[in-house]
Structure formats: structure tokens, C-alpha cells
């Protein structure tokens, strides 16, 4: 059974504490938090100070998705936020292996993110250092894009590549209730949802999303 991860980037920034309180009331276990530098992606959002502040006011496990150039320069600050899960883009650094080791050494779960144009095969020699693989199902950094349907094949291929290893597959981008169901069937275990949750009636949307992956 897959798990829905709300993305706080999709929430109402003017009422962020209210949004976090809503997710807590809904007994959300995992919160997806984007860290964007305006370079690797065009948007800027949630630096380490903001993430640390949110972490202090939440019991949820934080899954921080680093969308930054030179991620090693920021890693110590991200670890210091208290985030339990930290993922780095394969495309953002030639030293992804050492970053994964550093994340794990700090006692956190280490993830690798791959963009739509990056084949899953590049991760073959990193599998023993990875706790989860985040497959971007849109191009990162810009909300409102359409789910890339080729991603379903990538999820299935990644599942085969992982084999018996205890590595989770996460997906992020353009996911609604029906797509969440398809991603679940393809083998994704962690499904990030932003706009499809926070637009409209949140209670109804969240229930529908969770029901879709039961």
C-alpha cells in the first residue's frame, strides 16, 4: 500500500501554520518539503531556517527534497533542521555517492532524485547507498505541469532494478487521485501530492487521495 506525502510547497503560504495543523489533525506521518535555490530550479522556497522552524512546530517526519546547485555546500544546514529524510538530485552534483554516505552517517534516510530525462539505470551502482529513489514525474521546480506518463514505465523499471533491496520508490509531480492509483499499481510507495490536495476542499481531497492507494 502506497502512502500519500503532502507537499508543503502546494499549501497556502499565508496560512502555513494552519496548513500544518490540518495535516497533523489528519494524522499525516510524512511531509514533503522542497528546498529550492533559484538556480537549479527557477523558484526559491524553504531554506534551512524555514524548514527548521516548521520542524519545531510539527511531529511529522520531514522529507526534504534538495533542488539546489552545489548541494554539498548546503547539506550540513539541512541535516541541522532535524529532517529525517534527505534527497539530492543525481544531476546536481558529481559527488552524489559521498553525499549519500554523509546523509546516512548523520542517521538520516538518504534519497536520490532523478529528473524526467535521466534514465533510472544511472543509479545501479549507488543502490547499496540509497534508502529511497525519488522519480520526478514533471520537470522540477514549477507547479501546474502535467504528469509525464512515461514515468509509469520508469517506476516499473526501477522496481525491477531494486530487486530485493529495501529501497522505497517515491514519485513527485502532477499527481491527482487517478494518477496516484496508477503510480501505486506500478510500484511507487511514497506519492507526493501538492495542488491536488490543497486546492478545493482539503478534507475531501485528502480522503479521496488516501482511498485511491488503499
Topology:
Blueprint: E1 3-6, H1 16-25, E2 30-37, E3 44-45, H2 48-56, E4 61-67, H3 72-80, E5 85-89, H4 96-105, E6 109-114, E7 132-136, H5 150-162, E8 168-172, H6 177-186, E9 190-193, H7 195-198, H8 202-212
What global shape is seen?
globular
Unreliable stretches: none
Main sheet summary: 9 strands, mixed
Measured between the Cα atoms of the first and last residue, the distance is: 6 Å
Strand order of the largest sheet: 1-9-8-7-6-5-4-2-3
Helix-strand sequence: EHEEHEHEHEEHEHEHH
* Number of DSSP E strands: 9
Quick check: average pLDDT?
A: 96
Helix content bin: 25-40%
Question: In percent, how much strand structure appears in the residues?
Answer: 15-25%
Number of helices: 8
Amino acid at each position: 500500500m502506497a502512502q500519500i506525502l503532502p507537499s508543503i510547497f502546494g499549501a497556502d503560504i499565508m496560512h502555513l501554520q494552519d496548513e500544518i495543523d490540518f495535516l497533523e489533525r489528519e494524522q499525516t506521518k510524512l511531509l514533503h518539503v522542497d528546498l529550492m535555490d533559484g538556480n537549479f530550479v527557477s523558484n526559491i522556497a524553504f531554506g534551512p531556517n524555514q524548514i527548521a522552524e516548521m520542524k519545531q512546530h510539527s511531529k511529522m517526519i520531514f522529507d526534504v527534497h534538495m533542488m539546489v546547485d552545489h548541494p554539498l555546500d548546503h547539506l550540513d544546514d539541512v541535516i541541522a533542521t532535524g529532517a529525517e529524510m534527505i534527497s539530492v538530485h543525481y544531476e546536481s552534483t558529481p559527488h552524489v555517492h559521498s553525499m549519500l554516505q554523509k546523509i546516512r552517517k548523520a542517521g538520516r534516510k538518504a534519497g536520490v532524485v532523478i529528473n524526467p530525462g535521466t534514465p533510472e539505470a544511472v543509479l545501479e551502482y549507488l543502490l547499496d547507498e540509497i534508502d529511497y529513489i525519488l522519480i520526478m514525474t514533471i520537470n522540477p521546480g514549477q507547479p501546474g505541469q502535467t504528469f509525464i506518463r512515461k514515468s509509469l514505465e520508469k517506476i516499473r523499471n526501477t522496481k525491477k532494478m531494486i530487486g530485493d533491496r529495501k529501497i522505497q520508490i517515491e514519485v513527485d509531480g502532477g499527481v491527482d487521485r487517478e494518477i496516484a492509483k496508477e503510480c501505486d499499481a506500478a510500484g511507487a510507495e511514497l506519492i507526493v501530492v501538492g495542488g491536488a490536495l490543497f486546492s478545493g476542499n482539503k478534507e475531501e481531497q485528502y480522503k479521496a487521495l488516501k482511498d485511491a492507494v488503499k
